[in-house]
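Progress note, sequence design subtask.
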């Protein structure tokens, strides 16, 4: 009982320290340019490779998560067959069994040398097995990021990151997810930065990043009533809230007007603007009932495409009147109903944006995609449609953007166009990849110095982001729990 009281007291002190840091986070006027830039960045951190993961330590230990990843990627029989070339069948099977037992003990590191000794593996045999393990680790060094490490913590602190987007690989189980998200938030808050937007694409149906203790939810296309749409949003909102995710990249309010669409199809509520508008609003209300940020996507409409923008740059040949008669109706309804965030599509709209760029991929000339179009983001969405919330890009590492424009240049163009947050501006898989972030920050700082981007515009974006965080992160003292 006494130990429990002491544990609760220590946890309370740790929590108090976290909350004090949150309360003392800098406001806009106190932020440096680097800190402001950090707030507009939302990173994808699904896998990571660091020195501890790449190499066996001198002590003969290896990180448990690395061994777990190796065994999941290489079949047990394949590993046994290799070890059998060095030791006999019985020893090989016993060695793998002992490794699995060690994994199940959930210690951070496994003592490989101890397991070798217990199995009477000679020094020469040990060297050969370790050499092969090192090869496998090198081949599989990008381990799913299910627990925060010092390098990732340093990235969040050093670059003042404003948001993270979690993917399937980040999730093992509910308790692990809670701890990971808690540790992400602590890394931001305890370094004096505002809390993170912790995001996920949790649309329900085929687009779900996790489904703990339940079957997959219905596709949006299977939803038949506004009440069902609300219930779906509420269910997802409860699940997100429970593990600490505060921002959902949903609902999809694209109209499924092209039956050949390879990416939207069943993610859309209907081929009817009124139904999509009504169901989208109800889904949003379900999220809001659980204090989760809502995101209408993919502006100004991805429903009438026949290409997947993850792979190619789609084109929609509609003029503004045609868009206003169909695609823009649900987005206007969501704006009027108070949607928090709108995500922009990587699509060409040559009849409303005729400015061009030359693709770095093949030298061909393209119209500016919506993501980097000032007319679409600022003139249309911000000014004509009256959206005052946060504009976020779709993932900037999608090939429609990354292969045609390039990472750093695309980020600059998106901000110039009017985006507030750039989502996944570069692949970060190891500490060496932070050179990409350095390049992006330097390009943006140079653009600010040359007045290609005004600091006033950057400030307006950061204000919108901080306002959103203030609204949805005030209950962090309930959502962030210091693990006991």
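Output:
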């Amino acid at each position: 009982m006494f130990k429990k009281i002491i544990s609760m007291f220590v946890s309370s002190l740790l929590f108090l320290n976290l909350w004090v840091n949150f309360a003392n986070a800098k406001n806009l006027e106190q932020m440096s340019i680097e800190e402001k830039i950090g707030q507009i960045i939302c990173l994808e951190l699904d896998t990571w490779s660091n020195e501890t993961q790449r190499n066996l330590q001198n002590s003969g230990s290896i990180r448990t998560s690395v061994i777990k990843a190796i065994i999941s990627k290489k079949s047990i029989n394949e590993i046994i067959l290799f070890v059998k070339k060095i030791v006999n069948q019985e020893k090989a099977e016993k060695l793998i069994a002992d490794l699995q037992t060690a994994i199940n003990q959930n210690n951070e590191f496994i003592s490989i040398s101890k397991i070798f000794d217990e199995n009477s593996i000679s020094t020469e045999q040990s060297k050969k097995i370790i050499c092969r393990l090192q090869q496998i680790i090198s081949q599989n060094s990008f381990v799913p990021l299910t627990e925060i490490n010092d390098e990732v913590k340093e990235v969040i602190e050093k670059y003042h990151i404003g948001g993270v987007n979690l993917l399937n690989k980040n999730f093992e189980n509910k308790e692990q997810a809670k701890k990971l998200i808690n540790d992400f938030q602590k890394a931001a808050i305890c370094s004096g930065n505002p809390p993170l937007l912790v995001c996920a694409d949790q649309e329900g149906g085929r687009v779900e990043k996790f489904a703990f203790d339940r079957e997959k939810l219905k596709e949006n296309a299977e939803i038949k009533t506004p009440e069902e749409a609300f219930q779906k949003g509420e269910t997802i909102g409860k699940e997100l809230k429970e593990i600490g995710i505060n921002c959902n990249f949903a609902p999809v309010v694209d109209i499924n007007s092209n039956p050949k669409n390879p990416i939207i199809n069943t993610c859309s509520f209907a081929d009817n603007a009124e139904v999509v508008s009504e169901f989208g609003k109800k889904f949003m209300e379900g999220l809001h009932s659980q204090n989760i940020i809502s995101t209408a996507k993919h502006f100004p409409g991805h429903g009438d495409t026949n290409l997947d923008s993850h792979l190619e740059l789609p084109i929609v040949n509609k003029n503004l009147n045609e868009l206003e008669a169909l695609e823009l109706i649900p987005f206007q309804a969501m704006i009027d109903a108070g949607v928090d965030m709108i995500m922009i599509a990587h699509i060409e709209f040559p009849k409303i944006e005729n400015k061009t760029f030359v693709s770095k991929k093949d030298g061909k000339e393209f119209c500016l995609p919506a993501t980097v179009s000032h007319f679409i983001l600022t003139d249309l969405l911000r000014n004509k449609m009256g959206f005052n919330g946060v504009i976020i890009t779709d993932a900037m590492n999608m090939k429609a953007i990354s292969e045609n424009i390039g990472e750093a240049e695309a980020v600059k163009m998106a901000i110039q166009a009017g985006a507030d947050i750039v989502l996944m501006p570069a692949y970060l898989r190891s500490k060496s990849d932070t050179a990409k972030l350095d390049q992006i920050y330097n390009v943006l700082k140079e653009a600010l110095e040359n007045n290609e981007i005004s600091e006033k515009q950057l400030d307006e974006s950061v204000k919108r982001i901080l306002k959103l965080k203030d609204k949805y992160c005030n209950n962090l003292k309930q959502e962030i729990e210091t693990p006991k």
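The two ends are 15 Å apart (CA to CA). Work on this subtask will continue into the next period as scheduled.
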